[in-house]
C-alpha cells in the first residue's frame, strides 16, 4: 500500500525530512451530507492523481453526523480535514473560514452533494497556476456546459434570474456568476476577504463584486449533475440573501463614489 512508503511523523522529525504542503485545497461547505463524504473523497482522489491536494470539509454542525464521517476519513488519510462550526451557519461564511484555514496557493470551492464534476479541478488548477488566470469558474452556461441537474423549475428560475441581475453589477463579463464551483488564487481571496459580505450562498458573486480591477477569469464547461445523496437546501431564503448581498455591495459602491466635502471657501 502507498501509506507504507510514507515516513511517520516521528520518523520525519528524526530524519529532518521536510514535507511540503498541498498546492491545491478543495473547500467543501456542507450540511447533512454524511452519505456524500466518502464518495466525494474517492472521486477527487481519482481526479487529482498528479497533484498534492487536500479536502477541507466545513460543516455547520449537521445533525446527521457529517463531521463524524469526515473525522473518520481524516484518521485514515491526512489529506482530509474537517472544520466543525458551532452556533453559526451559512455557505459563504463557511467557505471563507475554509479558505483562510488553508495555505495552498490555489483554492477551489465545490458543493458536497456530488453535483459538481470533480474532474474539472485539475483544469481549474492549471488555468490559475500555469496560465495566469485569477479565477477559474466551472460554468453551466458556456459551450459544453449544462444545468440539467437542477432539481426543479424553482431552482432553475432562481439561477437564471440571479445570473441576469448579477451580470449588471460585475466588473468582468461572466456567463455563470452564480456558479458554486470555482477556483481562485488564494492571495487574491485573502486581499478581498475584508470587503466580502459573507452572507448567502453565492460566494463567487460576492468575490467578483468587490474587485476594484477586473480579474483574469476563465470559464470552463461542466455538466451540473443530479444530487447523489441528501436534499437540496435551496429555497426562498436564498433569494432574500441574494438580494441583500447585491444591495450591500451597491450601497457600498455608492458611498465610495460620493465626492467628499471640501473644507473652507475661497477668499474674495
Automatic annotation (TrEMBL):
A cellular-component GO term for this protein: membrane
One Pfam family here: Glycos_transf_2
Lineage: Bacteria, Pseudomonadati, Pseudomonadota, Alphaproteobacteria, Acetobacterales
Highest taxon of the lineage: Bacteria
Residue runs in coiled coils: none
Domain Glycosyltransferase 2-like: 25-189
InterPro entries assigned to the protein according to its UniProt record, in alphabetical order: DPM1-like, Glyco_trans_2-like, Nucleotide-diphossugar_trans
Name this protein carries in UniProt: Dolichol-phosphate mannosyltransferase
GO BP terms: glycolipid biosynthetic process
Family: Belongs to the glycosyltransferase 2 family.
Record carries keyword Glycoprotein: no
GO MF annotation terms: dolichyl-phosphate beta-D-mannosyltransferase activity
Keywords in alphabetical order: Glycosyltransferase, Transferase
Amino acid at each position: 500500500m502507498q501509506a507504507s512508503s510514507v515516513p511517520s511523523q516521528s520518523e520525519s522529525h528524526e530524519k529532518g525530512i521536510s514535507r511540503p504542503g498541498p498546492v491545491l485545497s478543495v473547500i467543501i461547505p456542507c450540511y447533512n451530507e454524511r452519505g456524500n463524504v466518502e464518495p466525494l473523497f474517492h472521486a477527487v482522489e481519482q481526479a487529482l492523481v498528479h497533484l498534492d491536494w487536500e479536502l477541507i470539509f466545513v460543516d455547520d454542525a449537521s445533525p446527521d453526523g457529517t463531521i463524524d464521517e469526515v473525522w473518520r476519513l481524516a484518521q485514515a488519510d491526512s489529506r482530509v480535514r474537517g472544520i466543525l462550526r458551532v452556533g453559526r451557519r451559512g455557505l459563504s461564511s463557511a467557505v471563507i473560514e475554509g479558505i483562510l484555514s488553508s495555505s495552498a496557493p490555489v483554492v477551489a470551492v465545490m458543493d458536497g452533494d456530488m453535483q459538481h464534476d470533480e474532474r474539472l479541478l485539475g483544469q481549474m488548477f492549471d488555468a490559475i497556476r500555469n496560465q495566469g488566470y485569477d479565477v477559474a469558474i466551472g460554468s453551466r452556461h458556456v459551450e459544453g456546459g449544462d444545468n440539467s441537474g437542477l432539481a426543479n423549475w424553482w431552482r432553475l428560475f432562481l439561477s437564471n434570474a440571479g445570473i441576469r441581475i448579477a451580470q449588471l453589477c460585475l466588473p468582468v463579463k461572466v456567463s455563470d456568476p452564480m456558479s458554486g464551483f470555482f477556483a481562485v488564487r488564494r492571495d487574491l481571496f485573502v486581499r478581498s476577504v475584508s470587503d466580502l459580505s459573507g452572507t448567502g450562498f453565492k460566494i463567487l458573486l460576492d468575490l467578483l463584486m468587490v474587485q476594484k480591477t477586473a480579474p483574469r477569469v476563465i470559464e470552463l464547461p461542466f455538466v451540473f449533475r443530479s444530487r447523489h445523496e441528501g436534499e437540496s437546501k435551496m429555497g426562498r431564503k436564498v433569494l432574500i440573501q441574494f438580494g441583500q448581498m447585491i444591495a450591500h455591495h451597491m450601497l457600498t459602491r455608492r458611498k465610495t463614489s460620493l465626492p467628499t466635502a471640501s473644507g473652507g471657501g475661497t477668499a474674495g
